[in-house]
Design brief:
Length: about 425
C-alpha cells in the first residue's frame, strides 16, 4: 500500500494548479471610460444601464436591475413582494446568510426545509410539509451551482398561490432542462461578489418578468425615491442598494465571459465526478439528468461505513497530497438555522422579534435536529473548489489523490 504524503510518502500533485486573470483590457477600458466621464452615480451614467440590458438579453427577461450585492438582490426580491410582517418564507437548510438577511429585515420568519441527501438542494417534499396559512413565499437556492428541483418547487408555489424567488448567487448561467436558472420564478437574485463565477468586487442583479414587481424593485433599491422627475415622497421603507457605474462597467464585460466559464467548469467538474464515482466510500454530489452544474464548488460525501476516518482527517491527508480541500464550511460548518441568530432568536437587540411576537402570533424556534439530513451532510462532506483555469491533468491529480487517500483509510485497519 502506497504511503500517504501525510506520513512521509510522495505527494500526488507536484505541479501547481492552473491559474489565470479574471480581468483584462476590456474591463480596464470600461472603467477608464467611467472615470473619464466623471460620473459614478448610476442615475446619470450609462454603464449600469448597459449591463442591465445585456443581462436581460442573455436571460430573455423583461426587467433587470443592478444593485450593491447578492444579499441586497435577495432582499430586494423579497421586498418587492410587499409581504406583511409575520409571514413565513420557506428556504433551504443549507444556504448562505445572504439568503436570510432580507427575510429578517422584512420582519418575515424563515422556515427551513431539509435537503435531498444526494444533491444537497432542498427537498420539495419537505417544502410541502412546511406550507401553511402563514406562508408568504418560497425561496429556492441552487446550492453550489447545481439547479434545485425548480419545476416542482414552482408547481408547489403555484398550487398554493405563493410567489417563488430564485437565489442564483452560485448558479450563474446554468440550465435546468435547457432553461436558464433565474427564469423560472417570479423574481430572481444574482451575486457579483469576489468569490462568484463572475464578479465586480461586490454587486448583484435582480431579474423579473412581472411589471408590478419591477416598479417596486426600482424603488426598493433607491430609498423609495422616484427618479423620473416626480416629487420625492417615499410611501414604504426602502434601503439604499444602488450599484455604482464602476461596478456596472466591470459586470458588463464579465457577462461576456460567463458562458465560457460555465462550460469549462462543467466539463472539468463532470470529469471530476466521473472519476470520484469509481472510488468506494467517496460519493460526489449527484447531478440529475437534465441539469447543468456551474461548479461554484463540488460537495463530496465520505461514507463512514467504508472510510475509517473523519472528514477532517480525510481532508488533512488530501491537503498533504497537494490537493487543497476543507470540511464543508460554506455556511460555517453547520445548517444555517443553527447560527446563534436563530438559536437565540436574536435578530434584533433586546428582542425575540419576529420569531416571537404577540402581535404577529409567532413563536418559532430552531432546535438541533430540525433538518436531520442537512446536519448529517455537514458531518460527512467536504468541498472541492474547481476553477475554469484548471487543466484536465489537475482534475486527474485530484482523482488520483482522492483514490490514494480513500484506499489507505479503507484498508488501514484490515
Amino acid at each position: 500500500m502506497e504511503k500517504l504524503a501525510l506520513f512521509g510518502g510522495s505527494k500526488t500533485k507536484t505541479t501547481p494548479f492552473g491559474v489565470g486573470k479574471r480581468f483584462g483590457e476590456e474591463e480596464k477600458q470600461e472603467v477608464l471610460e467611467v472615470l473619464d466621464s466623471d460620473i459614478l452615480f448610476y442615475v446619470f451614467g450609462t454603464k449600469v444601464r448597459e449591463m442591465e440590458a445585456k443581462m436581460r438579453g442573455m436571460y430573455g427577461m423583461k426587467h433587470c436591475n443592478g444593485c450593491s450585492s447578492g444579499t441586497a438582490a435577495v432582499h430586494i426580491a423579497l421586498g418587492s413582494l410587499q409581504l406583511p410582517p409575520g409571514k413565513e418564507v420557506i428556504t433551504s437548510a443549507i444556504t448562505d446568510m445572504g439568503t436570510l438577511t432580507g427575510i429578517l429585515y422584512q420582519c418575515l420568519i424563515p422556515r427551513f426545509a431539509d435537503i435531498d441527501p444526494e444533491t444537497y438542494n432542498m427537498d420539495p417534499a419537505e417544502v410541502r410539509k412546511l406550507v401553511n396559512s402563514k406562508t408568504g413565499a418560497i425561496v429556492a437556492v441552487h446550492h453550489a451551482g447545481l439547479p434545485a428541483e425548480i419545476e416542482e418547487l414552482k408547481s408547489i408555489a403555484a398550487e398554493h398561490g405563493l410567489p417563488l424567488v430564485e437565489d442564483c448567487a452560485q448558479a450563474w448561467y446554468t440550465h435546468y432542462k435547457g432553461q436558464l436558472c433565474g427564469t423560472f420564478a417570479d423574481i430572481s437574485a444574482f451575486s457579483l461578489n469576489h468569490f462568484k463565477l463572475i464578479t465586480s468586487g461586490s454587486g448583484g442583479m435582480v431579474l423579473t418578468n412581472r411589471d408590478d414587481l419591477e416598479e417596486v424593485v426600482k424603488l426598493f433599491i433607491d430609498k423609495c425615491y422616484f427618479r423620473d422627475g416626480r416629487k420625492r415622497n417615499p410611501y414604504f421603507l426602502a434601503p439604499n442598494y444602488q450599484m455604482t457605474e464602476l461596478q456596472g462597467a466591470v459586470a458588463k464585460v464579465q457577462l461576456d465571459r460567463i458562458a465560457v466559464i460555465v462550460r469549462e467548469r462543467n466539463e472539468l467538474g463532470m470529469r471530476l465526478i466521473r472519476g470520484l464515482e469509481s472510488i468506494p466510500g467517496v460519493i460526489p454530489q449527484h447531478v440529475p439528468e437534465g441539469r447543468e452544474h456551474s461548479f461554484f464548488l463540488l460537495v463530496v460525501r465520505v461514507d463512514p461505513r467504508v472510510i475509517q476516518a473523519t472528514v477532517a482527517q480525510f481532508c488533512e491527508a488530501l491537503d498533504a497530497e497537494g490537493i487543497p480541500c476543507e470540511p464543508n464550511k460554506i455556511t460555517g460548518g453547520m445548517a444555517t438555522y443553527l447560527y446563534d441568530i436563530f438559536r437565540n432568536r436574536s435578530a434584533f437587540p433586546g428582542s425575540a422579534f419576529p420569531f416571537v411576537s404577540r402581535d404577529l402570533g409567532s413563536d418559532i424556534s430552531y432546535p438541533k435536529g430540525l433538518c436531520a439530513r442537512a446536519e448529517l451532510a455537514f458531518e460527512q462532506t467536504f468541498n472541492f473548489n474547481i476553477s475554469e483555469f484548471y487543466s484536465t491533468d489537475d482534475i486527474d491529480d485530484m482523482i488520483l489523490a482522492t483514490e490514494k487517500v480513500a484506499h489507505y483509510y479503507r484498508v488501514k485497519n484490515v
